[in-house]
Structure formats: C-alpha cells, structure tokens
# Entry
Amino acid sequence: MKKLIDCAMKRTPCDLVIRNVRVFNVFTGTLEEGDLAIAEGRVAALGTGFEGREEYDGKGLVALPGFLDAHIHVESSMLSPEAFASLSVPHGTAGIVADPHEIVNVCGVEGAEYMKEAFSRLGEVPPLDVYLQLPSCVPATPFETSGAVLGSKETEEELSRGLFFGLGEMMNFPGVLAADGETLGKIEAAHRFGKPVDGHAPDLSGDALCAYRAAGILTDHESLTAAECREKVARGMYIQIRCGSSVNNIADAKDAVDSYNFRRYLLCSDDKNAADLSGRGHLDDALRRLVAAGLPAEYAVAMTTINVAQCYGIPDVGALAPRYFADVVLVDDMKNFRVHAVFKRGKLVASEGKALFDSSARYLPAAVRSTVKIKPVRPEDFRITCKGGKLRAMEVTPYGLYTEETFVPAPKGVLEVKGTDLLKLAVVERHHASGNLGLGLVKGYGFRGGALGISVAHDSHNLVIMGDDDRAMARAVALLEKAGGGMVLVSEKEEDVFPLDIAGLMSSADVREVVAHTGSIAEKARKMGVKECYEPFMTLVFLSLAVIPKLKLLDTGLFDLTKWSHVPLEEV
# Structure
C-alpha cells in the first residue's frame, strides 16, 4: 500500500510506466490520454510525470482492462491448458471463469485438479487467471453413463476446499423446478460457502423462470431472443452473450441491451475451438462482432471487463484505476480491437500476437490418460430393424445446437439409409466398457460415404458416431479406442484419426498441429457432404447433450428433454 501511495505521489519510481496511451475508463465510458503508473503489479495512478524503472511507449494505443471470459469450457478447444493460454492470452484474455464440466464427467474431480495445476505451472505469476467452477451436473442427467458421479454430498465436500471458485452451470433445470432435494442440495452448498452459481436455462420464462431464479442462480448463457434476455434481466439475472465456435447469439442478444441494463450483460465464448482461437481470436473477436453489430463500444468493453468482475465478485480486476491489478491490453482502437501488447500484473506477457511465456511443457498425470474403455462393437450392432411404423429423427437447427423431432416412414425390415437424407447416429459408452450403445437418426446433415466420430460428446463424453455405413461406423469406434480418444473419419478411400490423448477431450500436441489436423479432418468431412450450416465435428458433439432441446441421443437411447424421459426410436 505504501509503495502504491508513494508512486502515485511521485515520491518513488514506479516499477513500470506505460506512456502515451488512451486509457478507457469503464466507470465513465470515456478515454483519458496520459500514462499508466504501475507498482507491485497494480495500477498506482493515471496521469503524467511519473518515473519508471521500466517504461513502455504505448504510441497512442488504447489501453483496456484485461478481458475476462464469463463462461468457458477450455476442453472444447481440444488444447491442453498450456496451449490454450498460449493462444488466448495474446488476444487480450486475462482471466476465464472456467467450468471443467467435460473433464470432470470423464475423470472426476481429479480432472479439475489437473486443469488447475497445468495452468499454475505457466509462471510464478501465471499469465491467465483461472476461476474454476465445480461442475454441478455430473452426469448432466440421471439417464446416461458418465465417468464420474458428483452428488450433493460430494459437491459440499469439494466446495469446502479452496480449489473451486463457484458452482458451474446448473443444467438440470427440471430438477430445480421440481425442487428435487439432491439438486437443491448442490445449490444450497454453494450458497452456504458464499460461492456464485452459474445457470443454464434455455427458453425458461414466466413462473418457471421465477422459480429458477429463486434458487439463487446468477447467470444464463442459453437465451436466444432479445425478449428472453430482457425477461431474465428483469428477474435479476446476468445474461452471458455467447460468441463461440458453434453458437453465436450476438445478433439477437444485442437488441436487448440499452443504456440502463448494459451492466447486466457479460461476454463469454462457452466453446471455442483451436482453429477459431488461432484464426479469429478470443474475446477480441467477440468485441469486434458486437461493435460491428451496432452495440456501443463502451458497452461491449464493459461486458468483458468490469461487468464480469462485478457479477462474480472478483476484486481488483476489470478496470484500469488505482489499486486495480495492472492487467492491460493495448489495442489499436475500439472498433477493430487489434491487440498489440498484453500485460499481466504489470509484466509484458504477449506482444504482436505472440506469447512471451513458455507454454511448451505438458503436465500429464495418469488420471487424465487412457480413459477410453470400450466393449468391442460389430457392424451389426448399428443395424436398425423396423416394424413398419414411423421413425423419430433429429433435425439440427442451422448454426445452432437445438434439435427438432421429425418422423419418417419406417419400411418393414432392416433400415437402409444410403441414398437418403438420413444418417445413423450412435452413442457408445466409453467409461466402463458396459456395452451400452444408443441408436438414432439424423435428418439433413449432409454427410455421405462412411462414418465420422469423436470422443467429445457433451456432457458425459461417450463416443458419438455418425454414418451411412455400418462397417465404417464400427471401424470408427475401434480407431477411437486405439487412439485413446479423438476425432475420426472413415471413408472408402482413407482413415484419418486425430488423437485426443488427454481424457479423450484434448490433445497434448503442439498448437500448430492441433489447429492443422482438426482443420484438415473437418474439411475432409465437409467434402463428404456436411452442410455449411453445421460445423462437422463441433455440431456432432452436441447431439448427445440432453439438457438442450429437444431430441437427443444418449448411450441409453433417445431422450426427449420436453418429456424428461426416453422415447422409442420407432412408433408403431
């Protein structure tokens, strides 16, 4: 405290002075020309005439607070924590509210411990703050098989220690609305320890929304219309505007933002793959899109800085003001948001798109390796025999995650999908080698001539396989098991596998290899017919997510969220 005061009063040199910048003030929405005086990793003062042991010429750039992602699953990048930091930090990311839902569903709490430890090894002062949430839904529903189970008792035990910042998205909104004791016990544990609770409330309104909010759930990132955003804000929630690889609801959500309520909106990516992080960026990409869509830049910046900090009660971040941590992003302007330099606690950690910290080491404990255990499958396991009624099929919302239910004729005998607009979908249990194999149909995806599959399948992360050839589908399963998880494509001409050796979710490979191989295998799937409105693999991984409407496939069979129960593939 004394050093900060002495530096502000110009009695002693600062550790660092960033000169000649236009500092954006998140409290007033204005730009201030001058210098940033930094000491002990914090902002001491703004103004002129400061002496610094080190100096950095900002050359008229705009200084913004470090960007904060309000909700992300790092695993969806398919990058190791170290590699994720090396891509996100140069784009201005200073902190993430991370829900390790994916790896905890596979490995239990040991998966979250791995994530935290890997990030912490990036330096004495890590370049990225990670606010880790304890996943609230492991598994997401009681109707599927996951690698771990966390009940209310385990939730209370884990929240009582220092690993977790809050409780991750409460996807089991039917359990909340039914006042299920086990579900409420998890939320009560978070409240008891003073920890925030994230939400997941697609299409909730009226009495149901009031009931969900009455549980003390703070946020929602599943609002798809401006009206839905406004209603949730009116009931006291924060809305996380999502700009990810699979879902982007900027166009709808921005219309709900006004000069009175903009403090209730946050930016998040939720799921961002390696190719997008490398090519488009992270939160800088979201800022560009928001401003291009017509939102005032000062609102947009607040949504990824001070709003996030105030929502979650994170002290001393989200602003460039005295005593706040010196997490500084220098951009060319507040339209393009091209990041030139990033400082973390007053240390330069990225410059002109390159990380200045060592992210090459890989921490890989045994708990996150060798996680794919399959009971052998045969081509005939994918056979669908019909009685002559009608078959349920999923139709995926273009550029979205929702699926609609449609019915197609079911000719008597073995169903043949080649030459039709139908594809077989299978979810194969991979945690306990139980032999569970759910079968369904997808209409209109476009893929033809083989099979594609992945060991990332929200949220229990069994294997999800799609194809029009039973042999190719069985081969895809065998290749994924041999690789320890990954992405696979099988056609008449070739087999291509990209291993995801960390829990079957992430790769320990170099960033460039991850970006190149995930991009090339997706492009091969695209050439086999996957429509432009679907991301070949990233869309596929959501077809087993039972907590997003409407019809989804689990390892135990077809599931209808609106009925909160299984439904048969064929109606006779």
